[in-house]
Amino acid sequence: MPAWAAAALLLTAVVIHTGGELWHAAAGFEISFALAPPRATGQYLGVFGPGAGLAEAFGPALLIWLSLGWGRPDWYVVGVPSALTGLLAPVAVRRAERHRGAPRTAELASAA
After folding, report:
1. What is the dihedral of CA 107, 102, 45, 65, to 10 degrees?
2. Which of 14, 74, 75, 97 has the fewest C-beta atoms under 10 angstroms from its C-beta?
3. Helix ranges (DSSP H) in 1-112
4. What pTM value is reported for the model?
5. How many Cα atoms are found within 13 Å in the side-chain-facing hemisphere of 64?
6. Over the range 18-32, which residues count as b (16 or more CB within 10 Å of their CB) and which as e?
7. 5 backbone dihedrals φ, ψ, rounded to 5°
8. At a CB cut-off of 8 Å and minimum separation 6, what does 1 contact?
9. Cβ contacts of residue 31 below 8 Å, gap of 6+?
10. Hey, where are the domains in the chain?
């Protein structure tokens, strides 16, 4: 592969990865805040924060361990649950919003 094509591919990957990270951070905060009961926002965010921190702390080590120990099957062990989680998360959020009633952001807008 020519150097210019490799650089273009790398730059494209960086842009896609950065967009995904930003989207993930915004969605995680919105979901953790909007689905919390109005009187328990602090408690919900208090549980959400350490959970995300633990995933960021131990996730890379787990992936490295799986990759070094299992090789190619690691991609299936990690990739399939990740893909399923990504596909099922919107369904779970919609169900939680229906169960809860009106979205939290609508309550905040009407209270202001």
Report:
1. -150
2. 14
3. 3-34, 41-70, 73-100, 104-111
4. 0.58
5. 5
6. eeeeeeeeeeeeebb
7. -70, -40
8. 9
9. 93
10. 3-111
pLDDT at residue number 63: 82
Given a contact cutoff of 8 angstroms between Cβ atoms, the answer to whether 35 and 97 are in contact is yes
* 72 phi, psi to nearest 5 deg: -60, -40
For residue 109 the two structure tokens come to 């807008």
Residue 9 in tokens:
């591919």
Sorted by sequence, the CB contacts under 8 Å of residue 66 that are 6+ apart come out as: 74, 77, 78
Q: Please give the Cα distance from 101 to 93 (Å, whole number).
A: 12
For residues 67 and 90, what is the distance between their CA atoms, to the nearest angstrom?
Answer: 29
In this structure, what token pair is assigned to residue 101?
Answer: 């009633």
